[in-house]
Amino acid sequence: MAKSMKTASGRLIARGYKLCTDKYRQALGLMFGFQKTPLVFDLGREERVSLHMIFVFYPIDVVLLDRNKRVVEILENFMPFHYHRFKKKARYVIELEMGSLQGCIIRLKEKIIF
After folding, report:
1. Torsion sign, CA atoms 61, 64, 70, 71
2. Which of the four pLDDT bands, split at 50, 70 and 90, describes residue 54?
3. Domain layout of the chain by residue ranges
4. Nearest to residue 19, comparing CAs of 84, 114, 91, 112?
5. What's the CATH class of domain 4-113?
6. Which residue, among 76, 39, 78, has the nearest Cα to 56 in the 3D structure?
7. Are 92 and 43 in contact (CB under 8 A)?
8. Which pTM value belongs to this model?
9. DSSP letters of 22-87?
10. 3 state SS of 7
11. pLDDT tens digit string along 9-44?
């Protein structure tokens, strides 16, 4: 059975995802790949997050979660070859195919289950 990602109220965000806990996999992210499997980065602690889209060839949606897996920031349509520094601290970073968030309506402070 494939792992899924949902809101606490049961709205589906993604069917299947890859959990990335090591620094190498987190640094590599979606670079050089055309695989659009959602990635979940567990940073191990809350910290300020900066992301770049160097060598990622398609736009993505990004959701940041705190240590309790509650949404602290959302970035939709993050374009290739751009950089973004988030304002809030996060423990988890979710990278999804662009448009994944349009149908599920994720709200700030909402809990995500994966």
Report:
1. negative
2. confident
3. 4-113
4. 114
5. mainly beta
6. 78
7. yes
8. 0.86
9. SHHHHHHTTTT------EEEEEEEEEEEEEE-TT--S-EEEEEE-TTSBEEEEEEEE-TT-EEEEE
10. strand
11. 888 888 889 888 877 566 666 655 656 788 899 999
